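Anyone? Bumping this.
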Amino acid sequence: CTSIYRNHGYVPSEEDLAQVQVGVDTRDSVIQAVGAPSSAGILEESGYYYVSTRMRHYGPRKPEVVSRQLVAISFDQRGVVRNIERFSLADGRVVPLERRVTDSSIEDKTFLRQLLGNLGNFNPGSVLNQ
Amino acid sequence: QNYTFNSVQVEGNQRIETSTIVTRAGIARGQTVSAGQLNDAYKRILDSGVFETVEIIPRGSTLVIKVVEYPTINKINFEGNRRIKDENLADAVTSESRRVFTPEQAERDAQLIAEIYSSQGRVAATVVPRIIRRDGNRVDLVFEISEGDTIEIERVSFVGNRAYSDRRLRRVLETKQAGFLRAFIRSDTFIADRIEFDKQVLRDFYLSRGYVDFRVNSANVEFTRERDAFFLVMDLQEGQQFSFGNITTVSEIPGVDAAEYQGALKVKPGVIYSPSLVENSIARQERLGLRNGVDFLRVEPRITRNNRDLTLDVEFALVKGPRIFVERIDIEGNTTTLDRVIRQQFRSVEGDPFNPREIRESAERIRALGFFAESNVETREGTSPDRVFVDVDVEEQPTGSLSLGGSYSVNDGFGVAIGLSESNFLGRGQTLGITLSTAQDAEQYVLGFSEPHLLGRDLRFDLDLGISERNSSFANYDTSRKFFNPGLTFRTGELSTLQLRYRWEASEMLARTNAATGAVITSEIAQGERSSSLLGVSYVYDSRLGGLNPNAGVRFEVGLDAAGLGGDNEYFKTTAKTIAQTRVWHEEVTLRATLEAGAFSWRGAGSSRTIDRFIFGPDVFRGFEPAGIGPRDLSGGQDDALGGNYYAVARFEAEFPLGLPEELGIRGGLFYDVGNLWDLSNVNTAGGTIVGAGGSFRHVVGFSVLWTTAFGPLRFNFTKALKKETFDKEQSFDLTIQARF
Amino acid sequence: CSGGLRNSADRTQDLDGFSPEQIFERGEFELAQSRTDDAAWYFSEIERLYPYSNWAKRALIMQAFAYHTGQDYPESRAAAQRYIDFYPADEDAAYAQYLLALSYYDQIDEVGRDQGLTFQALQALRTVIEVYPDSEYATSAILKFDLAFDHLAAKEMEIGRYYLRRDHYTAAINRFRVVVEDFQTTSHTAEALHRLVEAYLSLGLVNEAQTAGAILGYNYQSSEWYESSYKLLTAAGLKLKDRGNNWLSQIYRQSVKGEWL
């Protein structure tokens, strides 16, 4: 069987990126030139990150990331572009995710109440022993 | 000038506390207050909407507030309403018992009731609110209604229509003349917005037939003298009929080649122009763009008219749409279904470029889940103009059904039957079906479970296991089966899926106490319980999974079961099925052709049994009883169906509207079935008088009535066999569910 | 009270003849028998027949309470709203507003489900806290407000984990950043920071991961989340293979127990 490819996210094209000059552009002019970042850092002064991922869905296997481009635009204290770096899939790390979850204090409806609460659908198939 | 008060006195209030009025006035003791502030206090008290009159009188150092409260409503009732019940009116009316009565509100309610009547065509209805004083400043509010009778449309006629006759246009319009179903159907009563709607219907009708300059100049209405009927005259301006000139595609996006998108078009020059064909072509190109992963692709049709040869040249421009991203997908209203079950229907992820077509297709997938009475997906601007919030608002509906039954028979005693089926088990999107029935001759302990997104992937896991004993009234033996059947289904391409399954089954044919069977069946019963352990694979190609054309579709399926992995039976069973469907004549008529065939080849020692071979009922071949066609054994005065090793069936059908109004939901259908079930090789036919082993092609024609009822889409089939074997068992009427292809 | 009222409420009976006090006692009796909707009907009759008596006011709040115990939330909301409209300055108005808030709050259930109710509960609870700050219900309203707020954060976390597990790291990062920025006071901030460490590391943005780890360490030094982040950041964690992660246990956890990973 063939694999299905799906693209996610967005990375500005080379021509757009060329318009961004280090030491000149500010945060707003960057957004003007190349569009809004996919994500940003936590602190005020952290950079803008543009990420585009290409995923391959192949049969029953878990969809896997086949290629990822990441453009990181970092800014200095004055909010002017300090550096434009490029990362790829190779720079990513395989991270085992923590399975534990902070449990929310709100208890869920009991199993039975959920099951019985949902009755009432009539499907004609059962009558005509379809 | 201004005042200072050191005490406030309230007079005339009965239900409302003095403290409440003082806090609402908002004037503290000893605070110097200007006349303007006094006026504001007056307005604040009045705005509470509870007082008929309010007076503020400064008397020296005390402020006196005199109020007269509105009375409270004790009861509301309606007199003179025959067509609309009290409860419906009570819902619509804003005044409520126990709340405050205000004349303006009563007036507004009266106007509301009059509007409800006029929306049902009783334009002459009049409503008068009246009050009956009760003790303790309470009132009863009565709405006196005189309904007047409905106003019917007598004749609808047209001026200026050359291409289509009055009768044809009348059929297009929804306001039918006051036909024979007069009292029954509401739609032929005169409603102002109905006329507006009909103008739209006429415009669509003409536009979709190439009359791009069509206009309704006027739709004037004349009263009959007795004001009980109307004459509706529509003055039309048709203009000329246009067809497609040359059709081109041009790409203004670097890296996108126009020829590929031109190839996706199905519309040809010379065809009659219609907006839906243009929209369809745009849909095809945008879906192709979606599949090629082109971001922000928008298709803009640029139409140039050449009036000389009445053609329209259409140039599809592939342009780079605005750079907009999906910022958040928020889901609300899912009180039972888990968030992930809905979210995984979206292929776009938060942060992806915004693709309206993909969002529409995801909305369609959410609707198709069948868990929601209402589900709509809207987009609104996000925190900045180039970002968008996708809001999913759903309203749940019950998805579980429980059936309880009991049975008592003299020799078997009590039997209980419990059936639970849930298509959204615990809100996880899983389907679960449990049937337990201990009735003596139909014992069933069956569990069916399916998880459409195993491990969060696009991977469907199905499991069916259980013990079931079936006694069909079309055979003289019972069948008992024990089975365990897991399966995995996954996508192998954009339009195709593959299922791998394993099935272990122990089946036995059981003689029925008071029913004799022919020689063949008796020998098969003697074989006792035989087990088969098989691996199966099914490949399905369905052009509608991501297909470009919403109106037509092809579904091709081929399956192979290979038994012999252990177990007694060894055989190959292959089945193939192709369905092609298209909608023609302005998408009103559906044409469907189905070809189905199967081959069963017994590999092992001994002989196969009827329950191993193919045997089918009206769901595969209409016009016959279950096990009605195919080889039979007439020995010992019996008439046992034996099934067959090969079968081939073709079904051709058409579904079309019967011209009845939409509200009834009735459509007609014509069909022609032809097929055969034959071959008894590897069957122990000793002692049997076999007929129809070679079989012949049976031909059946019939018509059906398709009625979408509140219980579900029902289908009544009436059939006539043109050519059949003498020993076949015909069945000329059958009630089934409309199969959704 | 008089025998005539003994049988269970037949709603056609005209109660004009009875004093409001008698009907009120009958309502309390029904409530004691936990026939809540009958009790509510009796209280509503007092309000209809004697709207200006002191009983009407008490009956209205009892009506809201009765519907609430019977879990008929829309009716209890309507009755509570009527009380607030008529007697806003009354000392029971705080309780009416609190009942109104509870009618939304009690319907919130497991995190995976509807969050629309949570917004309404938060707004109603906020009115209780702001309009009746010194009433006895303000404290428990504040407690419930925090719980509802925590529930909203849990919802953001759940969607963040949904994207994290499917390798959509930027979508996950944006959701976890919402929790860190807008929901600092909730119990989910520690986990959100750890998930940010996981997501940034997966993308290869090591310095952002370290910043998130530092904030986590500074504010939640003793939490297990800091421990997990510490392991990840000191690279030792990367070799750690997840225990008990064969595909069968994965299917059991996810399809049968409904867990996320």
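Late reply, but here is one note on the structure posted above: Strands of chain A lie at 4-9, 39-40, 48-57, 64-75, 81-88.
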